[in-house]
Design goal:
heterodimer, A: mainly alpha, MetI-like fold, 19 helices, flat, B: mainly alpha, 2 domains, two-stranded antiparallel ribbon, 2 strands, 75% helix, transmembrane helix (chain A), membrane (chain A), phosphate transmembrane transporter activity (chain A)
């Protein structure tokens, strides 16, 4: 029996010429194809990593300027004739002076800085200085005076916010071309800004109030901060943690340890895996219809947001908790049962403590997911208004309208003033820092406590 | 905050029940723990659980049902004649609640006496003014029926809360007494407590089912309501999406097709970006990469999956859009007129989906048995030939499942399209034009509007219903394919 008999005559492959050690054309082709294929794989990973780098660079380069803000350092004479006409320092009389009473003082103070330093500018009137400072500056000074009426009559050094145009000019967002079309500021103001910057009156400083402050109205981008929405997110996360951890763990224990094989169990399992894939906006619709439309819970409240996010996070937590319960070896259960523990005791006294690190890791990852979720919050009304008040207690923290970090970022991204874009990127940096911290804690917990059996 | 105090009171009753139940059991055994059927703490838990669980359940149910009941009975007080044109019962009831809350706040702040707030003959204008002065949100003028309804609302709410507190505490005490009375040395406390805990566990597991039921019901009811106001045939066949908020109903064109087209188009662009990159990355990582490269590249790629979608949305709006605009805009090819377009949203979404496709495919490729690879190598095939002709065909069903899951993610994605895709519904083939999607329209029809009576708001529920069915269908199909494939090699 020979192989020759299988191959029909005439169709035999070309006999090899030359040596096996030198590659022929066909081998070369195959090897080239191999190399090419490999390159596709490397290219795909490289493209993916490039996207990651581009994304992170975009976030950092656009957002880091939000942590700096332009301030005007000036000495303001708190004129008693304007602020306290009666002269008896009665707090009620002082409170009657509105911010309009303070604006001229500030304008005079800046003008004095200009003339003292002998800066040449066509802007010689005090009113011309209005474009340099933030509209919130007068309120800032007024609050300080009301807190401490003894300041009236003194000359006090203030660090007031510059207007968002001046701030944008220092950060390169506002250019001389764009100013030509802008009604609120002129090229002369920019010249003056340059001069004042050289004189050290105007300078960029670290802006703590971006992290701790409240949101501001649309025209005062320079004043807006994330503080209130961070609190909103915090209260929401408390609700999510308080509800989803016990419910999720209880559900997983039942499904993993006690559930008999029947229809109800199957239904629950199918439900959980499907819920994990339901688009988050559908949970928003659920929250709107059930918690707000039906149960009349307060709109925009962190409590409602927390409830919606709880429902959304539960499948994640249940899936990871079940995995960590499953990883506890059956010998632990058998040993407990063998010395007379009941099934319930074996689970609660032995299996659950051993699975705890895994459960905690899963919960933290679930919380991180919930923290970044935006779409459901839009539907329950956590955008569209200005979150400018800090909650004044625990109850109001849960029940009063508030924003949340991602909702605040969305709100800023929607606003027309490009000054808010910088804030939105800055907000993302804060959000990502929170997420990174949570994930790091999860990783550390896993490394530190996870047991391999 | 009465509910908080109520809960604290319940916890206190539970604690007392624990101590009493435990003590009574020990006493009945004459202090000898060996005579007890169960450990002493089980007798305590028995009393505590019997006090707490039914009472808390009643508290939750009551707080859910009470506003519903009060709303219905108060809304009967407002005649149809009181509802002005362009308004509806829901809006009037919202006003009633606002007035009632306003009165509550004003009385609590001591600006108005309790009798004054409940005075049925009070001057409406004066009360409006007082409420406004106190900084409460009320509309320009409260009418007499609204004030009467608000006063009634306050009375019912007050009585309701009082009754609730009494009922809940009475139930808790009754449960506690029952539990304590049972405590006797031959009572099988552990078995009872364990049965109770098991019931609680089952209840927790059932919340997943309840959530689904809630989703389905809230969608069905509101969709039904929408189809009563707006013909379903128009909704599914009209090629126009033009809601009008001024004229209520009638003049709006609400066709889902342009939205579905936008959704479909953006998802296809996203998959065209994500599938090749994700798939090749998965192949490289599982077949070629050394453990070191794998350990480095895989977590980095998966980092993309951990970034919240709002970040991608902003990235689309402020980075990808302007970048595309410089190439394809008026200065370049002239195909694009604004930063928001199908391509903007599609590419960004593609980036988001890369790790999703790659890690799912990675799992699936790894599940192909090593014997198949070895057989192919043994025949002299190169690595790439093995992958192309053996591994991929074997993994194909699983990969199809992964792509379907990614498609379902793309269809349900909201923030990227809200920020990156634009607001105009269009049926167009140009991928550089702005289009909109189902999810983006759900957001724009429902935000900032607390009135759910107009077809323009209710349409969002119909859209949500279709979205839910679409994504659920894709998921079920994908999971079925993946599961079937897994079984093949197990």
């Amino acid at each position: 029996m020979t192989n020759a008999s299988i191959i029909p005559p005439g169709s035999a492959p070309e006999p090899r010429h030359g040596s096996l050690t030198t590659a022929d054309a066909r081998t070369k082709k195959r090897n080239a194809a191999e190399k090419r294929f490999r390159m596709y794989g490397i290219a795909a990973i490289a493209v993916g990593l490039i996207f990651l780098v581009v994304l992170l660079t975009a976030i950092i380069t656009n957002g880091k300027s939000a942590f700096q803000q332009t301030f005007i350092m000036t000495e303001v004479f708190l004129d008693p004739a304007k602020l306290d006409k009666k002269g008896d320092r009665n707090i009620e009389d002082i409170k009657k002076v509105s911010t309009f009473g303070y604006t001229p003082l500030l304008q005079n103070a800046i003008l004095a800085e200009v003339t003292d330093r002998g800066i040449e500018t066509p802007l010689t009137k005090a009113k011309d200085m209005k474009a340099l400072m933030s509209a919130s500056a007068a309120a800032q000074v007024r609050d300080m005076v009301i807190d401490n009426p003894a300041l009236i009559g003194l000359t006090v050094e203030f660090r007031i916010l510059a207007s968002s145009r001046v701030d944008g000019y220092l950060k390169g967002r506002v250019s001389r071309e764009s100013v030509a079309r802008d009604k609120s500021i002129d090229a002369e103001h920019l010249d003056l800004t340059d001069a004042l910057r050289e004189a050290g009156v105007i300078a960029k400083k670290f802006n703590l109030s971006f992290i701790t402050g409240a949101d501001a109205s649309e025209s005062r981008a320079e004043q807006a901060g994330m503080g209130v929405s961070i609190l909103g997110s915090l209260f929401m996360m408390l609700v999510v943690l308080g509800l989803s951890l016990p419910i999720g763990v209880a559900a997983s224990i039942y499904l993993e340890e006690f559930a008999p094989q029947n229809r109800w169990t199957d239904l629950i399992e199918v439900n959980i895996s499907n819920l994990a894939a339901v688009p988050s906006i559908v949970f928003g619709i659920l929250g709107l219809a059930v918690f707000i439309q039906f149960a009349h819970l307060p709109q925009s409240a962190p409590l409602v947001g927390g409830l919606v996010l709880t429902l959304m996070t539960l499948p994640t937590i249940i899936i990871s908790t079940r995995a960590s319960l499953k990883s506890v070896p059956p010998s632990i259960r058998d040993a407990a049962l063998g010395i007379g523990a009941s099934k319930m005791q074996s689970v609660f006294h032995h299996v659950l403590p051993l699975a705890a690190p895994g459960i905690l890791t899963g919960t933290i990852i679930g919380l991180a997911q919930a923290l970044g979720e935006t779409a459901p919050l839009l539907l329950i009304g956590m955008v569209g208004y200005i979150a400018s008040n800090y909650p004044d207690g625990i109850a109001s923290g849960f029940l009063d309208p508030n924003s949340a970090m991602p909702a605040q970022i969305y709100e800023w991204a929607k606003r027309a003033d490009p000054a808010y874009y910088e804030r939105a990127w800055g907000g993302i940096i804060i959000l990502l820092v929170f997420l990174l911290t949570m994930n790091l804690i999860a990783i550390i917990l896993r490394r530190r406590f996870e047991r391999r059996w | 905050m009465p509910v908080l105090w109520l809960v604290i009171a319940l916890l206190a009753i539970g604690a007392v029940g624990y101590i009493l139940g435990r003590g009574r059991a020990l006493k009945s055994a004459g202090g000898d723990i060996r005579k007890l059927h169960s450990l002493p703490s089980y007798y305590g838990w028995n009393a505590a659980l019997k006090a707490l669980v039914p009472a808390l359940l009643l508290l939750v149910l009551w707080s859910l049902a009470q506003p519903f009941y009060i709303n219905n009975s108060v809304s009967g007080m407002i005649g149809d004649s009181e509802i002005s044109d362009g308004s509806n019962r829901g809006l009037v009831m919202a006003e009633v609640r606002r007035v009632a809350d306003g009165l509550d706040n004003v009385v609590a702040a001591g600006l108005m006496s309790a009798e004054n707030a409940q005075d049925g003959l009070a001057d409406v204008a004066a009360i409006t003014q007082q409420l406004k002065d106190a900084g409460q949100v009320v509309t320009s003028e409260i009418t007499q029926p609204v004030l009467a309804a608000a006063q009634r609302y306050r009375v019912m709410k007050g009585t309701g809360n009082l009754l609730m507190s009494i009922a809940v505490i009475a139930l808790a005490l009754a449960g506690m007494v029952w539990g304590v009375k049972e405590s006797h040395f031959d009572f099988w406390a552990r078995n009872v407590v364990e049965r109770g805990i098991k019931a609680l566990l089952i209840a927790a597991a059932s919340i997943a089912v309840l959530t689904t039921v809630g989703i389905v019901f809230s969608l069905i009811f509101n969709t039904w309501e929408f189809f009563r106001l707006y013909p379903a045939a128009d909704f599914y066949t009209l090629l126009e999406w033009a809601p009008s908020f001024s004229g209520r109903g009638g003049s709006s064109d609400l066709g889902i097709l342009p939205l579905l087209w936008g959704t479909f188009y953006i998802s296809v662009v996203a998959l065209v970006v994500a599938v090749p990159i994700g798939l090749f990355a998965a192949i490289y990582l599982s077949e070629y990469a050394s453990p070191a490269v794998r350990g480095f590249a895989k977590p980095l790629l998966e980092l993309l999956a951990g970034i919240p979608t709002i970040v991608y949305g902003l990235f689309a709006l402020l980075t990808v859009g302007p970048m595309l605009l410089t190439v394809f805009g008026d200065d370049g090819f002239g195909w694009m007129s604004g930063g928001r377009a199908v391509m903007t949203a599609g590419i960004t979404m593609g980036i988001m989906l890369i790790p999703f496709v790659s890690s799912l495919s990675d799992d699936i490729i790894n599940a192909v048995p090593q014997a198949m690879r070895d057989g192919s190598y043994g025949l002299g095939a190169t690595k790439s030939e093995t992958i192309k002709q053996v591994i991929l065909p074997a993994a194909l069903p699983g990969i199809v499942g992964a792509i379907l899951l990614a498609a379902s993610r793309a269809i349900g994605e909201t923030m990227i399209v809200v920020l990156g895709a634009g607001a105009a519904a269009r049926l167009s083939l140009n991928p550089f034009e702005a289009m909109t999607t189902v999810t983006a329209k759900i957001v724009s029809q429902l935000t900032g509007d607390s009135d759910f009576a107009s077809p323009e708001a209710l349409v969002a529920f119909a859209l949500g219903m279709n979205l839910f069915i679409l994504t659920l269908g894709l998921n079920v199909l994908a999971l079925y394919i993946v599961r079937k494939y897994r079984e093949q090699y197990e």
